[in-house]
């Protein structure tokens, strides 16, 4: 590709993990700039990163002179920019696109925002929430989201090896990092057999394997 | 349009408000089915609505035999389905689309999910959060999101009468309902002059006026 891609990244951020999956599926070469979300009070709050993203968050994708924020905007940009080849992250038909987006949004709007580091910090600071109470909070929202996600997968013949058909889409790029979080915080996945099956399949693919948190250069 | 549109709606839900704006901008005629989020323990949890959306949430758009969930998926479906005419909710250029989506996602991922009814209920139930503490929580996340949103608008020459250029997009359809919420919960908007200016302009347009919560048939 003509202009270089730089991903401002943190190995354990599930929003970054989504983008790494997408970049790999598109076959895009990119450089990683780690932003440590915990060290030094959080490098995302530093002046340098704040200038790049006033939301003080990762991921940020820099493409030449352009700055793109928000994981779902980045992923759809990769799909639409044309420069990037590789697999399409969204299908062609409008209804299929709507299904894939609605699954992705279930994770990115209904689950993940409630499990963010900044939310955990607020619960501790303002409500004296203990570590077990904070982890119960996380599992509560993940379980609620996964129940709906499982129902939407299990009830629809469009579900294949992946969330939509047999090739990975935006929906898988969002689901698999959320399953990683769920495992990290001890959510019992027994009630979600379709999610587990799709997760296992996706993790067997090189694009997902390379994107795993533990395979990043900044992994602890 | 060939098949009818039915919106499962609640007047004060800002996610529904987004979709009403989009439907109006696209010039789509639609029927409204009110789902009362508070009465009877929340009609969104009833068997009928759960069958339509296992996430127990509004909005849901039914288009003929098809069910579309998640406000941003619905809005982009309207833009892509072709059947709907009216204004485009997303610009043409990939980078412009990314900017509009990233602004929309700042509201839908970074602000609104933390201000949901179900989150308020959890804070009260599990952390004994008082009404003032819950409202402080809401204002905290709105202020944090608006600071970033304001910076992204004010620093970019692509901002016009609306968030991106002079015609409303997906970004305005998300911002204006969030400003409604901010006013409802007493957030001081003085530090956000560009947001206030865009809000005022958009509310002067018929598509936004017709979508306002107080103009819905189920408004209290």
UniProtKB/TrEMBL annotation, chains A, B:
One of its GO terms (molecular function) is maleylacetoacetate isomerase activity. Coiled coil: none annotated. Residues 3-86 form the GST N-terminal domain. Keywords: Isomerase. It is an enzyme of class 5 (isomerase). Residues 93-220 form the GST C-terminal domain. PROSITE patterns: GST_CTER, GST_NTER. It comes from the Bacteria. Its EC number is 5.2.1.2. Belongs to the GST superfamily. Zeta family. PANTHER family: GLUTATHIONE S-TRANSFERASE YFCF (PTHR42673:SF21), MALEYLACETOACETATE ISOMERASE (PTHR42673). This is Maleylacetoacetate isomerase.
């Amino acid at each position: 590709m003509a202009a270089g891609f730089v991903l401002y990244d943190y190995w354990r951020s599930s929003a970054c993990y989504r983008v790494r999956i997408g970049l790999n599926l598109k076959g895009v070469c990119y450089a990683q700039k780690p932003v440590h979300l915990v060290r030094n009070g959080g490098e995302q709050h530093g002046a340098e990163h704040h200038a790049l993203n006033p939301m003080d968050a990762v991921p940020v994708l820099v493409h030449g002179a352009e700055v793109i924020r928000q994981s779902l905007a980045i992923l759809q940009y990769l799909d639409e920019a044309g420069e990037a080849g590789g697999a399409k992250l969204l299908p062609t038909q409008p209804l299929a696109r709507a299904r894939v987006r609605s699954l992705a949004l279930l994770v990115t709007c209904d689950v993940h925002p409630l499990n963010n580091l900044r939310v955990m910090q607020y619960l501790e600071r303002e409500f004296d929430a203990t570590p077990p109470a904070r982890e119960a909070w996380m599992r509560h929202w993940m379980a609620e989201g996964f129940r709906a996600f499982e129902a939407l997968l299990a009830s629809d013949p469009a579900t294949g090896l992946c969330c939509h058909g047999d090739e990975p889409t935006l929906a898988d790029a969002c689901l698999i990092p959320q399953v990683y979080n769920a495992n990290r915080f001890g959510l019992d996945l027994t009630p979600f057999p379709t999610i587990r099956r799709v997760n296992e399949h996706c993790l067997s693919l090189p694009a997902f394997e390379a994107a795993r948190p533990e395979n990043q250069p900044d992994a602890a």
